[in-house]
Target: Taste receptor type 2
Amino acid sequence: EQFNITSYDATAVAIMTLEAFAGLWINAFIVSVICVSWVKKKTLNSNEKILLVVGCSRFWYLGISWVYSFLSIIYPHSLYVHPTLQLFVSIQSFLNHSNLWFSACLCVFYCIKIANFRNSFFTYLKVKIDRIVPWLLLASVLFSLVISIIAYEMADQAHCNNRNSTGRGSFWRASIKMDKHFFPSFFITGFEYAVSFMAVTFSALLLLFSLWRHKRNMQTNSMKDLSMDAHVKAMKSVLSFFVMYSINFACLILNMVYATKTGSPVMFLILVFQYAFPGVHSLVLIFSNLKLEKTLLRILAYVKCKVCMR
Model:
């Protein structure tokens, strides 16, 4: 049974609006706190640099996606015809890809910075990681830009061919052509999702193995080590990322499978999870960072005090 198209659009936009505004506030908070710290200290460490680009990319992604959801209802059959919608689709795709890569970079950074291994290459990365981070972020931007351009061009070509072959009796052939043109785009996008997901997975496994070795050495030597706390905090953060990445990765794959089935209940749930991911993930980032957590708690305490005084 299909959703009524009007009620489906209205419900989807209402939920997207709530999720988008919550995510915008959360990511704006991250960016503002880091920018204030940047002004005070005149410098940023590698962790703050990654958090800054993650917060900025997610803020603009949610804002543009929210605007695009309204425009797609006003122009439901003009996704690749109307120039404004073309621009929003391109920017949304780029920000979505960069958002995934920035988050994966953060997990890899935690792994290299916290985990302890005697491998010479891993030691070299640990020493050079602060210099590598800017180049890693730049590579993420360039790679996301290339992937989004390729995927958009393929999808645009598929829609153009579909418009040229929608005569009487040719709808089945048009559907086949759409699938054939969308397959390379889905393959490239799916490959990117898989690589970023594997980066997060390996980071979690390496941190878990490092924590296990460190705990065993502490029991053997009967001594305490402050790095245990760093291991535990990083492990909690990366495991939280891993769980959310698993859900998000499944939604991204399902989104490619049900891309042409708009209005279905499965597509509706996929959109709900996808729009919730940037906000929920960023909220975990706040509570895994001591400075961000303390600032948020001070703001909430101040707001609560003002409300009570009224």
Notes: The two ends are 50 Å apart (CA to CA).
